[in-house]
TrEMBL record:
The chain crosses the membrane at residues 157-179. Keywords: Membrane, Metal-binding, Transferase, Transmembrane, Transmembrane helix, Zinc. It comes from candidate division TA06 bacterium. This is 3-keto-5-aminohexanoate cleavage protein. It comes from the Bacteria. Its cofactor is Zn(2+). One of its GO terms (molecular function) is metal ion binding.
Amino acid sequence: PDYPNDTSLISANSPHILITNTTARLIGAESEEARLASTEANPEVCSLDMGPLAVRGKLKKRLPPLTGRPEDIEMDVASRTTYGETEKYARIMLEKGIKPELEVWHTGQYWLVRNLIEKGLVRPPYMIQFVMGFSSGAYATPKELLHLMDCAPKPSVFSVLGVGLLQVPMVAMGILLGINVRTGMEDNILYKKGELCTGNPQLVEKVVRMAREIGREIATPKQARQMLGLSEKPSQYD
């Protein structure tokens, strides 16, 4: 991705939006140079994985009009993340004024989170994203979510996501527990079992309805910045 250009275009169309980029190890972006490219756009937030994972599965080929994957890809890999990498990436974000979104897949990864805190490389409130239902991560259950919350350093701002059909149950749990939630096609392409979603707006609208049904309003970009300890003024991108 051309992060500076993409970030600028998004900001131009939605100047108040809070933009989050990623340093995750993606297919086609495994090198350190590719992973750190996202920080060059100076987003307000950037994700940072808190540990390695073992992944096995299949990426299905892309059908027209999509391109870039003409055949199915069978995966049986390990996503490498080290203490040193997280320290280096967190230090770069700290110098650039970027808030790290600490992606936690199970409680064992809190060792890396606490290491960053002890070294002064992340500032409170700590932004922690729970990734649930993914291969070799935490099971997507209420008990696992509560355990992740109980073990987290304080003060933290939590968000939860569920992968695939686990998205809605975990979003519902997050709403009930009063934490933030994440939805979208990065984690799930189904609106419901057997039915593909029409796009991200459909998934977002569903979550908004769920939250409002039990009396939880959706935070504005300004409120989100306040919760995360960010400047109330949106970043400017050239």
